[in-house]
UniProtKB/TrEMBL annotation:
GO terms for biological process: aldehyde metabolic process. It comes from Fontimonas thermophila. Belongs to the aldehyde dehydrogenase family. One of its GO terms (molecular function) is aldehyde dehydrogenase (NAD+) activity. The active site is at 216, 250. PANTHER family: ALDEHYDE DEHYDROGENASE, ALDEHYDE DEHYDROGENASE ALDX-RELATED. This is Aldehyde dehydrogenase. The keyword Oxidoreductase applies. Residues 22-443 form the Aldehyde dehydrogenase domain. One of its GO terms (cellular component) is cytoplasm. Gene3D superfamilies: Aldehyde Dehydrogenase, Chain A, domain 1, Aldehyde Dehydrogenase, Chain A, domain 2. Keywords: NAD, Oxidoreductase.
Length: 499
């Protein structure tokens, strides 16, 4: 049974058991792994009341938004279980001149014991996307949920304990101290979701054991609003993207670069839609049942400090700005006249505040983006195709959405999710999580020796030396079809030779 483990020395024992179990799991079929994922999903959906209650206590998230999270993992589980047999099957690769007569393919094998240090803003989805991928790959898995979402963490522990033995899937609850102890163990792969500071700690710890890592971090996601954009659409979608989950979404637009000719109209559209979504009845944003709260006092103080610093340094409050520390409430807020010296333009906001910056020349917008680390997500609003292509070609990010935002995650399992450098390393979702947890083992089987099988061994013959010299001298270019044909002939000849 999963227990909330308290003693540091118990992690080693747990780890050893997980490591032993991996050998048996490596031999399991796609159907056996799929069955585990289906059972986990079923137990999760059955725990919906507890999940809703936990999300409400932690972030005051409404039922529909939590259901959207459940839908995300349901489609993830269904996609994996439908495709796993194909992903697990040995994948033949094209032969080459140097492997004539040999069979070449890739086998996907479990990396081993996987650790996941998860976070709190969508704790159920963030836990299970990684868990499903690890189970699909045949790995054993340790989940350390975030201590900032303790109710969800307990629900996760209960669900997992109900479905799988602890030596396959263990939930270890606790904070940084527990994470630190876990990081000392020789995990084979580590998933981490969170900020940069801890991301560095995780990467350093992984280096100690040469563990591979998938880091899902954040940063300042830009949204570009071109002069050709449909302003009302842009305002509506960006108001939603910025304020959903009270801005506590890694992909949320953090600042908007808006063509100077439309800044006023854009700000007005944004404010109009923020109001329509969260204060349509005029009773105040704070009373909206759809506007969550900031996760805790530390994060509230952090966001409030960013706002105060910006206002002190001359930012203009265009909309919102109300805060209530006792209620952990921050109103949807729009700032203009922001400058580079303000902390709000240096740190990820992770709250419902959008900074709007004007640009006259496109190059100015690009320069603002390039002064910052590569973002997780970027957004372009434009009707002009040439403008979309221009901005797309001159920016980089983990993902890009044109004329919308936030919709690149959890919506299409064929689109892997992740960042670039400071915003993340590696990809998750759909087959990507399976691949992160798998060792893509290259296999060569020497089946039907072609020509003189001893030619490559010393003492080297003149014929061999000449062959190497010829290959060095010119481009080696044999069409795949010719390789396939020669391989077929070799196979046929060797079958006859054997008779
Ligand atoms: P965090 O870094 O404080 O915590 C995340 C995990 O790290 C928790 O499990 C925590 O216990 C652990 N941890 C904390 N301190 C640690 C330490 N000293 N050593 C080892 N482990 C430690 O999380 P946060 O910064 O509050 O999360 C918000 C950040 O996460 C934002 O930057 C956001 O953009 C990012 N995020 C990214 C994604 C994504 O998928 N890319 C998703 C959600 C959030």
């Amino acid at each position: 049974m999963n227990a909330v483990l308290k003693e540091s020395n118990r992690f080693r024992t747990l780890f050893d058991r997980l490591q032993t179990r991996v050998h048996a799991l490596a031999l399991t079929s796609a159907e056996e792994r799929a069955d585990k994922i289906r059972r986990l999903l079923k137990a999760t959906l059955e725990a919906r009341p507890a999940i809703l209650a936990a999300a409400h206590k932690e972030l005051r998230v409404n039922e529909t938004d939590v259901d959207a999270q459940l839908l995300m993992i349901k489609s993830e589980a269904e996609f994996i279980t439908r495709n796993l047999a194909v992903w697990m099957a040995p994948q033949p690769v094209q032969g080459s001149l140097m492997t004539l007569g040999k069979k070449c393919y890739i086998r996907y094998e479990p990396k081993g014991v996987v650790l996941h240090l998860s976070t709190w803003n969508a704790p159920i989805a963030e836990a299970f996307v990684m868990a499903y991928g690890a189970i699909a790959a045949g790995c054993t898995f340790v989940l350390k949920p975030s201590e900032l979402a303790p109710h969800s963490a307990q629900v996760l522990a209960d669900i997992c304990a109900k479905v799988l033995p602890e030596d396959e899937l263990a939930v270890v609850n606790g904070g940084a101290d527990v994470a630190t102890e876990l990081l000392q163990l020789p995990f084979n792969h580590i998933f981490y979701i969170g900020g940069h500071q801890v991301g560095r700690i995780v990467m350093r710890a992984a280096a100690e054991h040469f563990a591979t890592v998938t880091l899902e971090m954040g940063g300042k996601n830009p949204v570009i609003v071109d002069a050709s954009a449909d302003l009302d659409e842009a305002g509506r979608k960006i108001a939603w993207g910025r304020v959903a989950n009270a801005g506590q979404v890694c992909l949320a637009p953090d600042y908007a670069l808006v063509h100077a000719s439309i800044v006023d109209a854009f700000v007005a559209a944004l404010a109009r839609h923020m109001t329509a979504m969260y204060n349509a009845d005029g009773r105040g944003f704070q009373r909206s049942p759809d506007l969550p709260r900031i996760v805790n006092r530390r994060h509230f103080d952090r966001i409030k400090a960013l706002l105060d610093d910006a206002l002190d340094k001359g930012a203009k409050l265009e909309f919102g700005g109300d805060t209530d520390a006792d209620d952990l409430y921050i109103a949807p807020t729009i700032l203009t006249s922001v400058t580079e010296d303000m902390r709000i333009m240096q740190e990820e906001i992770f709250g419902p505040i959008l900074c709007v910056l004007p640009f006259n020349e496109r190059e100015e917008a690009i320069a603002t983006i390039r002064r910052r680390p590569k973002p997780l997500g970027a957004y372009i609003f434009a009707k002009d195709r040439a403008a979309i292509d221009w901005f797309m070609a001159r920016t980089t990010s983990g993902s890009l959405v044109v004329n919308h935002n936030l919709i690149q995650s959890g919506t299409n399992p064929h689109l892997p999710f992740g960042g670039v450098n400071a915003s993340g390393i590696g990809r998750v979702g759909g087959r990507a999580t399976f691949l992160e947890c798998s060792n893509a083992r290259s296999v060569v089987e020497d089946q039907y020796p072609a020509g003189d099988p001893n030619i490559m061994f010393p003492p080297y013959s003149d014929k061999y030396k000449k062959m190497i010299a010829q290959m060095l001298a010119k481009e080696i270019r044999v069409p795949d079809a010719a390789i396939d044909l020669i391989n077929g002939i070799i196979k046929l000849t060797s079958v006859f030779k054997r008779r």
